């Protein structure tokens, strides 16, 4: 593998990122579920998984941390 082929591993999965991108647009869990064609429980699971990876206790803290890390943009 060449040095310029290196890509750092993303912290969030593609779906977790999609959920948080909608979350920062002030969408509700129900709206996110409808937009992504998944259940509300699955949305909550994605949020919970991301919060666990980040070591935070709430959605707001997760958003702040993801913005700080450059993983998410407003």
From TrEMBL:
Protein name (database record): Transcriptional regulator
Lineage top rank: taxon: Bacteria
Source species of the chain: Gracilibacillus orientalis
Tagged with keyword Transcription: yes
Keyword Transport recorded: no
GO biological process, one term: regulation of DNA-templated transcription
Keywords on record: DNA-binding, Transcription, Transcription regulation
MF (Gene Ontology): DNA binding
Signal peptide range in chain numbering: none
Domain HTH luxR-type span(s) in chain numbering: 5-70
Alphabetized SUPFAM superfamilies for the sequence: C-terminal effector domain of the bipartite response regulators (SSF46894)
Cross-referenced PROSITE patterns: HTH_LUXR_1, HTH_LUXR_2
Pfam family, one: GerE
């Amino acid at each position: 593998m060449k040095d310029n082929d290196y890509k750092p591993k993303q912290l969030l999965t593609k779906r977790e990122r999609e959920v948080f991108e909608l979350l920062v647009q002030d969408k509700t869990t129900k709206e996110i579920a409808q937009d992504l064609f998944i259940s509300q429980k699955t949305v909550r699971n994605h949020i919970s998984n991301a919060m666990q990876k980040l070591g935070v206790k709430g959605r707001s803290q997760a958003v702040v941390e993801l913005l700080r890390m450059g993983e998410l943009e407003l």
